[in-house]
Amino acid sequence: MSSSRAVLLPGTASDEVFISAVFARPLAEAGLALLAPASRGVREHVAALDAAWDGTPLVVGGVSLGAHVAAAWAVRHPERCAGLLLALPAWHGAADGAPASATARASASVVGSAGVEAALTGVDGWLGDELRRAWPRYGSRLADVLEEAAGEPAPSLAELSGLTAPVGVAACTDDPIHPLEVARAWVEALPRAALRTTTLAALGADRESLGRAALDAYRSAQAAV
């Protein structure tokens, strides 16, 4: 890989703990050091990417909202980007009622009116465990962070078409919140990209399955001419 560092951002109201669980070991095995900023929200994510830039192109990316923010940063600063690792993109362009946007907005409403536990009623298994761990870390900012993410535009397909760095995209075939069709649209728009898939069940059993899928796609994109 052409960079020695990867700066990866979490999804909406997720955190650097999840990012590390997904990516740290797969990246280390690929010769990349993970930088997982403890940033909260879109502006902090952008600031973390800006702060990581030291004149050497970076691999950037993230999960869901983190993937959107990293891709938008790469669109604005293509000279700073050696490549992208993008897991679970949720929409392109305006959110326009995308499932992840609607879910975040609904969660923000319940958090604001009834609290975290009420918003997580019925969210069980590994995802429930992750959210019950991460959401309290946001404190009083949680509802605002969820609401912000729900309306934050992702790069448009036209903007993605201008990115020439290699891009690895990972999606879960059984994830209705981050539809596989969105990931496919991103890959079709990007000039030099590949897609690999896993499942939510696999991710629940092994967080690294998502990181390995993104890295495998990235290697394939690098090899493409």
Automatic annotation (TrEMBL):
<protein>
    <submittedName>
        <fullName>Serine aminopeptidase S33 family</fullName>
    </submittedName>
</protein>
<dbReference type="GO" id="GO:0004177">
    <property type="term" value="F:aminopeptidase activity"/>
</dbReference>
<keyword id="KW-0031">Aminopeptidase</keyword>
<keyword id="KW-0645">Protease</keyword>
<dbReference type="InterPro" id="IPR029058">
    <property type="entry name" value="AB_hydrolase_fold"/>
</dbReference>
<feature type="domain" description="Serine aminopeptidase S33">
    <location>
        <begin position="42"/>
        <end position="117"/>
    </location>
</feature>
<dbReference type="Pfam" id="PF12146">
    <property type="entry name" value="Hydrolase_4"/>
</dbReference>
<keyword id="KW-0378">Hydrolase</keyword>
<dbReference type="InterPro" id="IPR022742">
    <property type="entry name" value="Hydrolase_4"/>
</dbReference>
